[in-house]
Write a structure and sequence with these properties.
Elements (H helix, E strand, L loop, with lengths): L10 H17 L7 H12 L4 E2 L4 E2 L6 H4 L13
Antiparallel strand pairs: 1-2
This protein binds iron/sulfur cluster.
Length: 81
């Protein structure tokens, strides 16, 4: 199956991913990346075939990239950033 045809994860997987991301983020004291790093991340997401442009979420992890991209404790599940 081509990556662009990948379906968005279901609500349970999305909730689990979000919970893990928030736990990591809170545990480290809510660290954010610089504006420059954030913009680089968003540029990569916006050109990625796994971005669901309608929901602005990643089809690999289910996260809303606008929020995930700000968190220093997060990384791209496909190792693009
Ligand atoms: S987090 Fe990674 S896989 Fe997901 S949309 Fe962004 S670049 Fe693509």
């Amino acid at each position: 199956m081509d990556n662009k045809d990948k379906k968005e994860p279901g609500i349970i997987k999305k909730s689990f991913s979000l919970g893990k991301a928030l736990f990591r983020y809170a545990k480290e004291g809510f660290p954010n990346v610089s504006q420059e790093v954030y913009e680089q991340r968003m540029m990569l997401c916006n050109s990625c075939e796994l971005l669901d442009k309608q929901s602005a979420s990643c089809k690999s992890c289910g996260c809303v990239v606008e929020y995930k991209g700000r968190m220093e404790t997060e990384s791209c599940p496909e190792k693009k950033w």
